[in-house]
Design goal:
alpha/beta, 7-stranded mixed β-sheet, 14 helices, globular, binds flavin-adenine dinucleotide
Amino acid sequence: MVDVAVIGAGSGGYVAALRAAQLGAQVALIERDQLGGVCLNQGCIPSKALLRSVEVYQLARKAARFGVRASGMTLDWEAAQARKSRVVQGLRGGVGRLLDRAGVEVIRGEARFVSPDTVVVGRDRIEARYFIIATGSHPARPPIPGLDLPGVLDSQQALELEELPQSICIIGGGAIGVEFATLFAGAGLKVTLVEMLPRLLPLLDHSLGQGLQRSLEWRRVEVLTGTRVTGIEAVDGQLQITMTTESDERQVRAERALCAVGRRPNVEGFGLDAAGVRYNGSGIAVDERMRTNVPTVYAIGDVAQGRWQLAHVASHEGIVAAENVCGQDARMRYHAVPACVFSSPEVASVGLSEEEAREQGYDVQVGAFDLSGNGKALAYGQPEGFVKVVAEGEVGQVLGVHAVGPHVSELISEGAMAITLEATLEEFASTIHPHPTVSEALAEAALAVEGRAIHSSRHLLLHR
Ligand code: FAD
């Protein structure tokens, strides 16, 4: 009998285990595969490591613009893959050492509930006062004929490609799809990116998908929005992908296709019914304390129902669940979840989109600042994108911050902090931002609401 048994050692599970151990609990962490879960082994980290290789390659190709003479630049994909594996292995080892130092017992194998307070792992039975389920998710497979043909990849297979093809058609224009479009276009492939809804990144502020589409098209990605893939066939050694719009049908040929249409929660096959836990196809039902309907069973991360399938949300939910099972009273608040897309340029967003703010009845004010007027972006050689602030009209409380541009993933935490602390535009604008940084554009965007942006080179008409 342990105090807490955590099932799944991904971003949610291993953080929950560490937090519970910090609070003095005796913790078992059960993992059927590798420590670190999808994020560390098949998601966030390997994708960013490969994106970095391609970014360096692209920068090297443009070296002359920066006054650096270099020639014979090639991308050594095998070496990039080897570097990616070293980064992943290093981090995985670090997670193992953290768990070891914290006294968390790591149990290797697949857990299956036989009752609300017992799981079996192989021949072992593990009883716990509390369970935290953190079993994560797997790639969704829409019912598209031909999706099981050789050459049609999921995100994990795409990250493990030993050789690069000449061309790829990516189905799905969400975060994962656009990151892969950036990766493969940067590596020199002919990329077609297909999104069924009218714009890329459909869950975020409309200006972000529009801005990113322009940037991807500059990088020679063919972006097809409002387009549904209806079938895939093997023709002449290639894949022929058939797609329809409201008025049209067309075919695209590519050596490979990648299905990146989202992820489904791992709710099957480990005895949730035996535990009496309520769930459906969208995941396990939880409240803001991460409790399921069974008082001693909690669920976190991608397997829990909710809007966000993000590593930092899983980790935060892990901390909340661990604190609650250890007798504290912690709650999740989802109004300030930052979301980043590591495309080129990057996209970052937190809080309400302009459309959501209007739908919720706010008297909305919007300010935006174009990065063509930002010194750091210019010096950096990427004066591309913008920062947009959404606020309500009465006291100017900041409701959302949205950005496209170089390294904007690093500035969005300021937006998250502003929303968490209920900051106003005035407080945002009067905060001294260091120069030269892209973050200066945040203060300028806040000032732009009242037409006071100091460096306003041109006004954006982002949305009308
Ligand atoms: P997971 O990481 O999926 O971990 C679940 C673990 O549970 C797995 O290790 C699994 O083996 C184990 N498990 C499952 N069932 C059992 C069982 N019965 N017994 C024992 N073990 C079990 N998010 C970001 O925030 N930023 C990014 O940049 C980002 N990039 C991504 C890129 C890609 C290509 C992908 C696919 C995802 C990306 N994500 C990103 C999403 C992120 O990876 C997930 O949100 C995160 O991994 C969820 O963590 P989790 O702990 O809920 O589940």
